[in-house]
Amino acid sequence: MPKLDQVLKAALTQEACGWTMGSFGAIAEFHHVVGDPAPQEHSRLLQVTDRGGVRIDTLDGVRPVAYETLSPRPHRWTQAVSLCLPRDRAAMNQRRVLTCLGPDHAALRDQDRGAEVFDMGLGQYQVDFCIRTQDPVLLEILCANEGKSLFDPENPAMGAILKAHPHRIALTRLGRVEVYQMIGGPDTGGTSPEGPHTHVLPKLLRADRTHSANTPIPEGWVPCCGVHPENPVMTRMGADRAFDKAAFDAFQELLATWGADAYLGGKLSVWELLKAETPVDLAAEPATREGRAGWRNGMRQWRVLHGSSDLLERYAQAFDRSADQTEPENPGH
User: Fold this and answer.
1) Contact, 257 vs 2, CB < 8 A?
2) How many distinct structural domains can be found in the chain?
3) How would you list the strands of the sheet with 128-133, edge to edge?
4) How far apart are CA 232 and CA 157, in angstroms?
5) 86 pLDDT exceeds 80?
6) DSSP assignment, residue 276?
7) Residue 325's pLDDT is what?
8) DSSP string spanning 146-196?
9) Of 63, 186, 235, 304, which cross-links 243 as Cys (Cβ 3.0–4.6 Å)?
10) pLDDT, tens only, 136-157
11) Could you count the other beta carbons within 10 Å of the beta carbon of residue 67?
């Protein structure tokens, strides 16, 4: 059985592994960029580059939840491990106005520890979403509007933030993700930069949820950090890739240890039916949502593992219909 700290330690040195902290609507992502210096080994659960970084300060009380989710594209699936805490232990400060927190003494890099941190006041349950700056012009505007909502149309602070591109920091009870790159918008051609970046989506924030309904987090638990190992059918930039069996097998080991029984059962059952060449009219999909997700992803994975067949395509036509069990996700998931 894999040990969580060892899995995370290894993942932090893998260029294809991504990391997220945030909520449904406010998320900070850390990814390695191809061509940048290779990830360095650290004594702590830490990785930092010139573009951003991630640090996990504690694993006390953590429950890892491994899962695969359905993609709207029928030849793909996504995968991740969420590091979860019990709901009461996951709670952060949930401030709803711009709030100065003082110098960032816990910054990942020495040169950032004198910069001022401001909670953006997004009011999210398990993350304090912050900005950090030493820019005197931006600091003057932020201090003048402390105690006000960033979403107040009369508040100039949000416009100043978008113009100045301060560091963004997602703080949870497990650690932090820091992003040093520019904020995606007019200054970046309307797209997020490759590698570490953030998303703040007011429409999703209004849902007041800790995570997407597609993420199978057990009742009473809250995801505080996402680990996104190398996907065997999709690149980090979202393009199709040739199937990578080693990446597939590596995640299946995590899924077998930390995945939901209903999902695993659904996938195994359709694999057994396909192996036995059971006619589609004798097959019945699982009754639970998780089981059906495993059933559908099982067909997709059977295709890349064993190739297509008339029987498999009849199963897919009958059971892997349009992505009726998916919903808009936080970007990057």
Assistant:
1) yes
2) 2
3) 45-48, 52-56, 175-179, 167-171, 128-133, 116-119, 99-103
4) 42
5) yes
6) T
7) 45
8) TTS-TT-TT--HHHHHHHH--EEEEE-SSEEEEE-SPPSSGGGTTSPPSSS
9) 304
10) 999 999 999 999 999 999 999 9
11) 22
CB count, 10 Å around CB of 16?
A: 16
| pLDDT tens figures, 296-322 | 999 999 999 999 999 999 999 999 975
What is the token pair recorded at 53? 């970084």
Rounded Cα–Cα distance for residues 116 and 138 (Å):
11
- 171-191 pLDDT, tens per residue? 999 999 999 999 998 889 888
Quote the tokens at residue 326.
């998916």
3-state helix/strand/coil string of 129-158: EEEEECCHHHHHHHHHCCCCCCCCCCCCHH
User: How far is C-alpha 133 from the chain's CA centre?
Assistant: 25
Which residue is associated with the tokens 């004594």? Answer: 43
Q: Is residue 284 in a domain?
A: yes
In a domain, 325, yes or no: no
- Contact present, 137 and 58 (Cβ < 8 Å): no
The pairing of beta strand 116-119 with beta strand 99-103? antiparallel
Dmax (CA) for the chain in angstroms is: 70
- Answering whether pTM is above 0.90, one says yes
Residue 322 confidence (pLDDT): 57
Task: Supply the range of the domain harboring residue 69.
Answer: 1-259
